[in-house]
Amino acid sequence: MTQLTGIRACVFDAYGTLFDVNSAARAMQDRLGETWPALADTWRTKQLQYTWLRGLAGRHADFWQVTGDALDFALQTHGFDDAGLRHDLMQLYLRLNAFPEVADTLRALKASGFKLAILSNGTPAMLQAAVENAAIAEVMDAILSVEEVGVYKPHPSVYQLAVDRLGVHGSEICFLSSNGWDAYSAKAFGFRVLWCNRYGQPPERIPEAPDAQIRSLAELPPLLKSR
Predict the structure, then answer these.
(1) Nearest Cα to Cα of residue 126 among 100, 158, 162, 93
(2) What amino acid positions are annotated as catalytic residues?
(3) How many other C-beta atoms are found inside a 10 Å radius of the C-beta of residue 57?
(4) Domains of the chain and CATH, by start
(5) Burial of 33 (0-12, 13-18, 19+ CB in 10 A)
């Protein structure tokens, strides 16, 4: 795979890229039983749908509310009516597991002199909790939330946050997301993009194709050159 040259900063999506969005439901297998994977999938699908629908309708609500609304839908869909279960799942969402390679990859990039940032739909409080739980706060130069612009990805104003905050041109940013729609949209904005296609998903049919795909963030450091 060809190296990306001229990169000064790496910007990461949070949910699904750094943090495993299924880990909250997985941790509640004893209460969810064999339904946990289906519930996790419904929760995530509806969470993303609500961000897009609210963006199109101009009815923004922060990601904590959207996540709770999506969980309510998922619980009802799968036959659960338990306020305690809902509370516990929401609290677990603040402590999602980082993928195993995340910490070492970020430290390697930081040691190589790259600026590092998170650019996420999450609220500042949600992101801070996840970053602290994963013990990666010290390597981050910025933790950027869509709450600064009041609209969700893939609106271009969200990607512009990284350019403005890091003080680098979009073409000097390597953007990483495991979400195909996010990777494609970030490329259309003007970032260099590596799609961390963890689950072997097919290509999206939207503008514009990422520069390359990887299956794990551990593949990232050798692919980047600052000059």
Answers:
(1) 93
(2) 13
(3) 8
(4) 9-20+98-223 (3.40.50.1000), 23-93 (1.10.150.240)
(5) exposed
pLDDT tens-digit map of 85-134: 999 999 999 999 999 999 999 999 999 999 999 999 999 999 999 999 99
pTM value surpassing 0.85: yes
Give the residues across from 143 on adjacent strands.
118
Q: Which residues pair with 177 in a beta bridge?
A: 195
**3-state SS string over the chain?**
CCCECCCCEEEECCECCCECCCHHHHCCHHHHHHHHHHHHHHHHHHHHHHHHHHHHHCCCCCHHHHHHHHHHHHHHHCCCCCHHHHHHHHHHHCCCCECCCHHHHHHHHHHCCCEEEEEECCCHHHHHHHHHHHCCHHHCCEEEEHHHCCCCCCCHHHHHHHHHHHCCCHHHEEEEECCHHHHHHHHHHCCEEEEECCCCCCCCCCCCCCCEEECCHHHCHHHECCC
- Whats the size of the chain, residue-wise? 227
**pLDDT over 70 (residue 1):** no
Burial group, residue 113, by CB count within 10 angstroms (0-12, 13-18, 19+): exposed
What confidence score (pLDDT) does residue 60 get? Answer: 98
Q: Is 210 left (phi over 0), alpha (psi -120 to 50) or beta?
A: beta
List pLDDT tens digits, range 141-180.
999 999 999 999 999 999 999 999 999 999 999 999 999 9
Query: What mean pLDDT is reported for the chain?
Result: 97
